[in-house]
Amino acid sequence: MTSATAGDAAQVSPAAQTRKSVTGTRKRMAVAFLLPALVLLGALVVYPIGYSLYRSFFDKSGDFTGFGNYVELFTDDTILTAIRNNAIWLVLAPTISTALGLIFAVLTERIRWGTAFKLLVFMPMAISMLAAGIIFRLVYEQDPDRGALNAVWVGVHDTFAESSAFPKAHPGQESPLKPGGKGSFVTRTTVEAGVPVALPLLGVPKEQMPQEAAPAKAAAAVPGKVTGTAWQDFTLGKGVGERNAPDTSESGYPGITVEAVKGGKVVESTRAAANGTFTLSGKADGAQLRFPASNFREPYNGVDWLGSEQAVPFLGVNFVTLSVILSYVWMWAGFAMVLIAAGLAAVPRELLEAARVDGANEWQVFRRVTVPLLAPVLAVVLVTLMINVLKIFDLVFIIAPGDVRDDANVLALQLYNSFVDRDSGVASAIAVLLFLLVIPVMAVNVRRLRKEVRR
């Protein structure tokens, strides 16, 4: 029996001996199945990389220039701005998105409606970059009537510092008022109790006058008190009326502040009525009357979120770049949250409870137990977002206005602009640079994956 078995084993067919894999698949069959994928990989990945490398050594006209295009990458101001902004993106966007994802994932574990919250945070991932760019272009509009962010910002600002109803008001050439410094206006002479004062102003269009404004009225003399009128000394389309004297066709300045100043100090202040009349006590006798600069404060129009002139003081990042990064975080924080929440679900609860039993507070549990256990997941999220950020294009192209797009420039956008300018040599050099920048990130990711497999 034993010898027969050995003989059968020795007489295995040659076809069976050619089978190398566990499933018995022949090499030729495996190659036949892999060939279409290899052809596509070569046509769509290997060939473009090789041709981009080759084309990067030629200039715009097709003449060989060696490393001239690569030298231009680090000498051209526009491209240097793109490289700088890419570095800012690489640091801020993945870090903020991952940090918010971690915070959301940990906090939503403790609330009943955590699933609904996760759904809301993750929902922006269903929106394309193009649609998100259009949404945030409207959100960042500086006009508070159109831009949602500035509408909120202006509302909060005006709650604490209300803007004036007369930002364009100013005295005429023959007015009894003169500039008083820092945007204020004062009377040329001191006033006397019992003698009405006329304080005429110009410059406020009729349609911009407050609704409560009433026809101007000359103030009556009151013994022992200083009275007067503040009004718009102009009537559109009419040549009647006396200059520097109230007329019924002219409007008073309701609510305008009038101060009595002696020796540089305000001794009394009041506000004008709807018809522009006001009354001060005997303290104002012998004082100069002043319209403080607060009467003429320009309306606050919010922040120019898409302007390059403003920058975050402690970061040095212009607002347009920071605004685009925030829109990216809005989209990708949900992605980070979902992955981190999945990793958090696999964390052994016994370890967390043991730390609490040993006297650790919630912050210590989070910092010394939860975060170290989530380190592999956090690394996956961070590396994924870093790779994604290196090729960011859509949001910058859509959100940044044309006049500041160079200030928000990134390498992918500069690559596109170079192709539009038919400078394929510089564009290819930028593509090679992006490829080289991705390689270290990918190497870290591959190394981490190999460590995970060994475990």
Entry summary:
It is found in: Cell membrane. The chain has 455 residues and is an alpha+beta fold. It has 15 helices and eight strands.
The percent of residues in helical segments reads: 40-55%
Termini separation comes to 45 Å
Strand order of the largest sheet: 1-2-8-5-6
The count of strands amounts to 8
CATH fold description of the largest domain: MetI-like fold
Provide the succession of SSEs.
HHHHHHHHEEEEEEEEHHHHHHH
Total helical segments: 15
Computed structural class: alpha+beta
Q: In the residues, how many domains can be counted? A: 2
The CATH superfamily of the largest domain appears as: MetI-like
Enumerate the spans where pLDDT stays under 50 for 5 or more consecutive residues: 1-7, 15-19
Keywords: Cell membrane, Membrane, Transmembrane, Transmembrane helix, Transport
Protein name: ABC transporter permease subunit
Domain ABC transmembrane type-1: 83-445
Family: Belongs to the binding-protein-dependent transport system permease family.
Give an overview in words.
This is ABC transporter permease subunit. It is found in: Cell membrane. The chain crosses the membrane at residues 29-50, 87-107, 119-140, 328-348, 369-390, 425-446. It is a multi-pass membrane protein. Residues 83-445 form the ABC transmembrane type-1 domain. The protein has helices spanning 2-10, 14-17, 27-55, 68-73, 77-107, 114-122, 129-139, 148-160, 319-345, 349-357, 362-373, 375-390, 394-399, 411-420, 424-454, and strands spanning 177-181, 184-187, 197-201, 226-232, 257-262, 265-271, 277-280, 288-291. The chain has 2 domains: 68-152 and 306-454, Orthogonal Bundle (MetI-like fold), CATH 1.10.3720; 177-296, no CATH class. It has a 5-stranded antiparallel sheet with strand order 1-2-8-5-6, with no helix packed on it. A 3-stranded mixed sheet has the order 3-4-7, with no helix packed on it. The chain is α+β, with helices and mostly antiparallel strands. The relative contact order is 0.13. It is built from 15 helices and 8 strands. Helix 12 (375-390) runs antiparallel to helix 15 and helix 14 packs antiparallel against helix 15 (424-454). 49% of the residues lie in helices and 9% in strands. Residues 1-7 and 15-19 have low confidence and may be disordered. The protein is elongated.
